[in-house]
Structure formats: C-alpha cells, structure tokens
Amino acid sequence: MKAAVLIQRWYRQYVARMEVRRRCTWTIFQSIEYAGEQDQIKLQNFFTYLMDHFTPTNSNQRDLISHIFTEDEVYKETELEKYFDHETIELPESYTGPHIDFPLTAAHAAALVEAFRHKQQLHARYVLQLLHETLKHLKLLPNINRVCTCFCEEITICGDLHGQLDDLLLIFYKNGLPSVEKPYIFNGDYVDRGKNSIEILLILFAFLLVYPNEVHMNRGNHEDYIVNLRYGFTKEVMQKYKMHGRKIHKLLQIVFSWMPLATVIDQKVLITHGGISDTTDLDIIAKVDRHKYVSVLRPPKKKKRHNMAEALSIRGGRTSEGDIQTTNMDSRPSLRRLSLTSTPCYSPGTRKRSPHDISRKVRRSVEEELEKCRRQVGFSEPYEDGKFSLSFSESDSESFEVCESDNAEWKQIVDILWSDPMHQEGCVPNAVRGGGCYYGPDVTEKVLSRHNIQLLIRSHECKQDGYEFCHNRKVLTIFSASNYYELGSNRGAYVKLGPDLIPHLVQYQVSRTTRKLTMKQRVSRVERSALRALREQLFSHKSDLISAFEKYDKNKTGRISLNDWATVVESVLHLGLPWRVLRSQLVQSAPEGLLEYHAWFDDLAIEQPTTEHVHQSLLETLYRNRSNLETIFRIIDSDNSGLVSFEEFCQTWKLLSSHLNMEISNEAISDLARSIDFNKDGSIDINEFLEAFRLVDKIHYTEREGSLLLTTPGALL
Amino acid sequence: MAEEKESAEAMISEIHKQITDAFDVFDHEFNKTVDVREVGTIIRSLSCCPSEGELHDLLAEIEEEEPTGYIRFEKFLPTMTKVLMERRYRPIPEDVLLQAFEVLDQEKKGHLEPEELTKYMSEEGEPFTQEEMEEMLSAAVDPDKNVILYKDYVGMMTVEDN
C-alpha cells in the first residue's frame, strides 16, 4: 500500500512538471508573438507620424518617402478591367496545372482542391480571372451576411487558417466539401504565416462562386495588405507568381476590401473575426462603405485628399517651424486621424501583463519614441502646449476634413476585426495587437443583448484545443489552424450549428506521424521550438544583457546570482515570462548558484562571434528588427522585384534607426550594405539578406579588413 | 549575526520570487488568483512531492473559509513559503522509488506486467484515473517485451527530470 502511494505521489509530480513546461511553452510563443505585434504598432505609428511631419531635405529622401506614402490609387471600373485583364496572359504549352472556366462549376472547385493537394499551382491567368469574378460577386454582398438555418441541417463555421492548406483539406475530408447541403462560414485570416495562403484563398473563392448562397467569407485582420507585408502573404504571392505577382497582389487588395465584415445566423448568432467593443453597433456597420478600408490600419481614403507625394513636394520648401504652426495641439473632441490606440484607461494594481498595463506601457514608450523622432527630424522647439499627444495630429488643415463620424466608423470596423475578449470587466484599448479593444463579459452582455444576439463566434486567437468558450459561454473562439506555433502545439477545430443553434465542436490535428506520442514527447517537441525562439531573443539582446549583468556584478567577477539573472533578463526583454520557472531550460550549469554570464552566451550562440562590440550590436539590432526591416523593404520595393538599391538600403536603415535607440554612423551602414551586396552589382536582394537571418544556426560572423561579412554556407563571395 | 539575518532574508526573498513565478504561470486573469484545481500542479512544480492526502490538507490551509473555486495569492504565499522553508514533501530519491517498485514485484521477476501495475495503481493507495494510467503505461511499457522494466523506467524518468 505504501509502495503504491509512493509511486503515485512521484508520478503525479512528474506529470505536474510536464504541465508547467507545457504552459510555459505556450506563454513563450504568445509573448514573442505579441512582442512582434507590438513592434508592428510602433512601426505603424512611426509611419503615421512621418506622414504628418517629415519634411524631406533632399530629393532622395523625397523619393523614398513618396514611395512609402503614395496614396492608394483609386481605380475606376474601366481602368480595373484594363489593368487586370487576364485575356492577354497566355497559357504556356507546358502548363500542367488545373484549368478552370467560367461560370465555375462544383467540378472545377473540386479539381482545384485536388490539384493543390498535389502541390500544383494555378496559372496567373486563371488566378486573375478567378479574383475578378470573385470581386464582382463580393460587390453584391452586404457588409453583414444574413444566413438562415432553415434550408439545411447544419452550418459549419471555421476559424483562422493562416495559409495552412493541410488543415483545410482535413476539414473537407472530415466534414465534406461545401455544397447546397453543406453550408460553410469562414471567419477570416486565410493568409499569412503558412505557406499556402494563395491556394486557400483560391479554393474558398471558387466555392464562394459556385455556391453563393451557402458559402460565406468574413474578412479577418490579416486580409489587409499592410499586415501581409510583414507576415508573409505578399512574399508568397511574389515568389509563386514572379511575372504577374504585382497585379495579383493589387487585385487582392481590392478583393479584401470588398469582403463582408460579419455574418449573422438566424438573427441570433453573430460571427465576426475579432469580436466587439463597447461601442459596436451593427446598424452603423451595416451602412458603411466597407471598400473604403483597403487597409483597416489606415484611415479611410477620402477623395478630397491630396496625393501625399504632391503634398510633400508642395511642402518641400517650407521650414519646419512653418509646419509646427499649423499643427493643432489642443484637445479637440473630433479627431482627424484616430490613431489605433486612443487614450487608454487603466486601473492601478493590475499585474504587468494585464491589458491595462500593456496599453499604458506601449503608449508611454511610443510617445517617448515619437518625441525622439521629432527631435531627430529637426523640430528643436517644443510645442506650445508642451505635450505631444498620440491621438491628435493635423498638418494640412486645408486638405483634410475633420470628420468625427468618419473616425467613429473606422473604429467600428477596427474593433470587430482586431478585438480580443478578456476576463476582467470593461473595455480597454488593445495595445498589444495595435487595434481594437479587450472586451469584458459585461461588454459582451451589453452588446449582444442590445442586438438580441445569443452567441458571438469569433476567431483571431490561437487556442490549445482549437476552441474556447468564455463570458458565460456567450463567446466562442474557434481556431482552425492546428500546430500553429509548432507541430504538436495545438489542435484545430470547427463548429457546427443546427437550427437549435447549439454548437457542436469538432477537433482535429494535422500530423504526419501515425504513432501516438507520449506526453513527454509532445511537450518536448513544442518546448524545444519555443526555447529556440527564446534563445534567439536572448542572443539578439546580448549587448544590453551584458551591460545589465555588469551592473549587478560590481566586483567584475564575471558571475551573477541566478536570482539577479532572472531580474536582469526580464528587465531587458520585457516579455513577462516566468524566468525562474524557465531557468533550468536556459541555464546549463550554475555552480553554487552563480552563473558565468559570458560563458552562458557562448552556450546560447551556435558559434562565437569574433567581431568588435560595435559591429556586434549593429548586427544584433538588425537581427532583432528583421521583421520591421522586411516590412519597410517591401514597401520600398514598389515594383516587387525583390531588389533594393544601395541608396535605398542606406536610406531605409537611416529611417529605421531614427525609430530605434541606435545611432549608427553612415560609414557602418555603407560597410554593411557593401558586404551584403554579394554579387557587387549595386543592388541588394532583399530575400537573401533576410534569409541570412533566418538561418541563425548557420550564420557565421567573421571580421575581414575591418568590415562585417555575412556568409551562409555555399554563398558566393 | 547581521550577516546571517541578511542571508536568511535573501533566501526568503528568493523563495518568494520562485513562488510568485510559479503562481503566475497559472494566473490566467492576471488578478493574483488561480483555479483551485491547478494548485496541486503549482505546488508540485516547486519541487514538492505531496501525496493527494497531504495536498488536501494543504489546500484546507490555503482555501477561503467559503471555498470560491479560486485560491488567492495572499493566502498561497505564506503557506507555501513555510512549506519550502521547512523542506516538506521532499521529492523521492531514486533508490527509494526503486524499492517501491520492487515491493510491488512480489515474485521478484525484475519486471512488472502491465496488468499488475495497472491493478496496483488503480486499486491501491490513491488510485490513478484511467487517463493517468494510460499515460503512465504509454511511456513505461517496453514495446518489444510488453512489460515494465521498472529499473530502466525509473532511471529514464529521473534523469530528464533534473
């Protein structure tokens, strides 16, 4: 008896430790993901600031800025037809991919599914044709689809797919293809991150056209070209469709803007990608011109607005003081440009990672950064009122109308696409994401009952089991991309609703291994991946960490206590992770409880950097900001050629460095640019440059003649 | 004397931070409360190895007078600090664990049949749930011989734990 208890005791402790490891792994992935998204907001806000205040001092800068900030061209119908004409694109004799014809039939759609399952690619001609037909269909749809269960047994609702074709195929396998008897609602985020975003879109659009009454697609926050620049969809399109990628890309922008924003079933179930806020009003949403919001991250296009490039060239000669005077700094109730995070409210006493605190922290740090930018860009005088507020900015008062209702409308849309539910009551701006709110159970109660809705189905957040109820089961999160962070990290799920409107959930997980993994194996695999990501983060902050360690190591012994280690790491990385719990995974040995921190970094890194301190931190900064860099590169690379000129690279870097803490000399930048230009033709291949960072394991730092050289195995020198 | 006091304070401060970190992993609402069903996991993650009975007693100390289903950090911290300071519920050394298996192996075969282990674990002591049993078997049973070579099993489990 005693022996049994002993074994049971021991085993339960073992299980508990596994569970904690699993939890931590999840937290790591989420923290890093959110830190990346926060980065994105900062970048976005920085651009917004530049749009208002940057006065280029030379023609190069002016060109660069106008590249970035050219207004989205407004296409007239006839122009559209001409520009996206697929007829002129010839199918080569050698094409072995699927063929489609219009009007599209179920057979065509099924053929597409099969073709993509076999890794074929649809020719650009068909892609453009399909997108064009899809656009025609979408324009006929209202902002809020109204669906009824009376004509069918059950409606299937799917959440985020994020380019993971295997998950869509698995859903169709388990649940059947869309048809008259099998209606589907897809709740956004079809693209980015996974490698088959375009295939998923093409399949879904095909079914949308074949079964217009049974298949419905909501827009997600990733159906947005600005988000796509960063998270991979743009790149995928350009890589798969080299010649016509640009056209496809532009047409997609328009298609996304015409996607409906929500679906309502039987007037009782609301389905939308993110959720709600305390001001959500479906009647307002139903009436907006949704296609004005090509990107939900930018304020709506206005016809009266000057082309930004024009505005810049007009202002080219004015002094910065002149600009300041037109800036209106007092708090007006109406905003010309609502930044994504309006004044946050927060309650004291909440822990550091609560939505309230993050909101406040981000706002403060963004304001500090903007202050710095302002100084660097040349506005040396403080504003009259003293405080620069994130929410208010006004530069050319003539060309921009102050329009309160426009911004209220914009907020409605951002809220339904970007918000997340939270446990606490209230409604707080969602600074972690960059848009929308965190909404509490009271908000759900209020908004749902105002509209006589009994259930909100939303997606937007990855859930361990593929789904999660909250707010007294009034909110259901459904997430359909299994193994989202890593193989084994989570299941996917879809939900079926019959006329009784009771949700029936189906879970699944795409997995190549048929053998069942033990708990230990499942946890370890995902954990390894998370820890690797975490080690990258630690390594890319090496300089900051070392100087912080040195502050605690006053006697210069090269060692610090494990307790101090945890404190330092959190203070530098700001990831809100339980470092003491993670310690055993990150620190190999610490005799007598003291860590030799230099040696620790050598353990973390795959190889030893032998560069000087200055180059080391430049490289780290580049590495840490590779997502931002990529985003900016892709914006500059307006012809989507994948190449950026020397000059553009240097300008980009200068632009970015004013957004960061680093002062980088022109020389260092030029050196770096020269060494990256592998084939010495004066232009830099963006993809190669970024690929170098993705292959962290294989990066080799060497110092040659005082300048930095990046080599990857087999690269030409 | 002052030095001793200082190091005792430092130790307590370190213990507090450990407890806080472990607690935070399960504090999903960021309001310094955890679900009572997770408390066992938290305590075990702090290198304690209580039996279910001992856990139950501990919970009684930590819970509110009127159980709410949640445990507050203010009550958890002092109790847990005492537990750690007193080094209660220490983990089981490998040799003791091995002996426990040997006790179960009455015929002294050197291994256990899955049915034997299942019987003991599900019927004696503080019985496993079916899920716990399945999970244990999946890792413990040698796939070729279909028995539990407990010596190897214990060795494997304790190595990776540390």
UniProtKB/TrEMBL annotation, chain A:
Enzyme class: hydrolase
Domain EF-hand residues, every copy: 540-575, 624-659, 664-699
EC number: 3.1.3.16
Residues in coiled coil: none
Pfam families on file: EF-hand_7, Metallophos, PPP5
Keywords: Calcium, Hydrolase, Magnesium, Manganese, Metal-binding, Protein phosphatase, Repeat
Annotated spans, Disordered: 340-363
Molecular-function annotations in GO: calcium ion binding; Hsp90 protein binding; iron ion binding; manganese ion binding; protein serine/threonine phosphatase activity
Cofactor field: Mg(2+); Mn(2+)
Reaction equations catalysed: O-phospho-L-threonyl-[protein] + H2O = L-threonyl-[protein] + phosphate; O-phospho-L-seryl-[protein] + H2O = L-seryl-[protein] + phosphate
GO BP terms, alphabetized: detection of stimulus involved in sensory perception; negative regulation of MAPK cascade
Protein name stated in the entry: Serine/threonine-protein phosphatase with EF-hands
Species in which this protein is naturally found: Acipenser oxyrinchus oxyrinchus
UniProtKB/TrEMBL annotation, chain B:
Pfam families xrefs: EF-hand_7 (PF13499)
Phylogenetic placement of the source organism: Eukaryota, Metazoa, Chordata, Craniata, Vertebrata
UniProt organism field: Acipenser oxyrinchus oxyrinchus
Highest rank taxon of the organism: Eukaryota
EF-hand domain span: 92-127
Protein name as catalogued: Dynein regulatory complex protein 8 isoform X1
GO MF, one example: calcium ion binding
